[in-house]
Specification:
Blueprint lengths: L1 E8 L9 E8 L4 E6 L5 H9 L6 E6 L2 E2 L8 H7 E5 L10 H10 L5 H14 L15 H13 L5 E5 L7 H16 L3 E5 L3 H7 L2 E6 L2 E6 L10 H7 L19 H28 L2 H4 L5
Parallel strand pairs: 3-8, 3-9, 6-7, 7-8
Antiparallel strand pairs: 1-2, 1-4, 4-5, 9-10
Helix pairs in contact: 3-4, 3-5, 4-5, 4-9, 5-6, 6-9
This protein binds adenosine-5'-triphosphate and magnesium ion.
Length: 295
């Protein structure tokens, strides 16, 4: 569960707040798109959740942790509950794919035996089992983002936050990454994604939260659209006619979308099956062996 109550953030020297009394509730297992123009406050909101930045006002609770009462030593614990994926992947260039994922576990004190068991499983689930020995520089952008997702998922977070995960990808790879996030969500992980990708948002029809100048101007709980200005939704809510292509120039999905979708469907089912299997295997183990962290 993610809860923000009247959260405001003023960066030094900025006259207007980056976040202005933002209140928000995201339930476990939701899939949420966070959209808004450049500078609207999306990354700032995410930094509030990861504790990279602190709010000036307001209350934040994530997964039962009240940030007002969080001790410094609890921050690593929080970072295990929340996986984060960025636009620029943030991979270690001199380490292999396997080592990149393993490193995320090493730094939180997971045993070598556990790492050896976990890394192949998460690489499998993101479809990169055959790239374990490759270096990030030898991978495509989409593959690099898959490594970043594998790295985040290795710690089995309850929440996965992705700040423009498709920002550096072409449409086909973007679609593959979003479908992977959707499958991870089907498995029970809460997903919060920021994006400028109108097509992806409109195709997925998930919850869409729109930020403008640090404020939430719209929160469409289901079947949300990408609409930064709000004109279409306002018309609808006022009982106006349903939008037409001419009135609301939302582009139709591009040609390559159909095959990409088809491919994502099969590989998505595959990934889901693998995750279920990995989870079942994991749960069969005693808890002490499943996760062993140094605190
Ligand atoms: N470290 C910082 N110091 C000062 N101002 C900042 C800082 N980070 C962000 N801002 C300002 O806060 C506002 C919100 O920025 P933020 O990065 O959250 O926007 P965004 O919605 O993520 O934009 P984009 O789509 O371009 O990534 C902007 O006006 C920005 O200039
Ligand atoms: Mg941003």
């Amino acid at each position: 569960m993610i809860l923000l109550e009247k959260v405001s953030k003023y960066y030094p020297h900025d006259k207007v707040p980056a976040l202005d009394e933002v209140s928000l509730h995201i339930a476990p297992k939701e899939f949420v798109f966070l959209v808004g123009k450049s500078g609207a406050g999306k990354s700032t909101l995410i930094k509030m959740l990861t504790r990279e930045e602190k709010p000036d006002y307001g209350k934040i609770m994530v997964g039962g942790i009240d940030y007002d009462f969080m001790k410094k030593r609890q921050i690593p614990h929080l970072r295990r509950r929340i996986g984060v994926v960025f636009q620029d992947f943030k991979l270690l260039p001199n380490r292999t794919v396997y080592e990149n994922v393993a490193f995320a576990l090493e730094i939180v004190g997971v045993s070598n035996a556990e790492i050896k068991r976990t890394v192949p499983k998460v690489l499998e689930l993101v479809g990169l089992a055959d790239k374990a020995k490759a270096f990030p520089g030898d991978l495509s952008g989409g593959q690099r983002q898959r490594v970043a997702i594998a790295r985040s998922m290795a710690r089995q977070p309850k929440i996965l936050i992705a700040d423009e995960p498709t920002g550096n990808l072409d449409p086909e790879n973007s679609w593959g990454i979003i479908k992977l996030l959707e499958e991870i969500n089907n498995f029970g992980t809460t997903i919060l994604v920021t994006t400028h990708d109108e097509k992806v948002v409109n195709l997925l029809k998930k919850r869409v939260i729109t930020l403008q100048d640090g404020k939430i101007i719209r929160d469409q709980k289901d079947g949300g659209h990408y609409d930064l200005e709000g004109s279409r939704i306002q018309k609808r809510s006022l009982g106006g006619p349903a939008p037409t292509i001419t009135a609301t120039p939302t582009p139709a999905p591009a040609e390559p979308e159909a095959p990409a979708k088809k491919e994502a469907k099969t590989s998505g089912e595959d990934v889901l099956a693998k995750m279920r299997q990995a989870k079942a295997e994991d749960e069969a183990k005693p808890v002490a062996k499943r996760r062993k962290f140094i605190h």
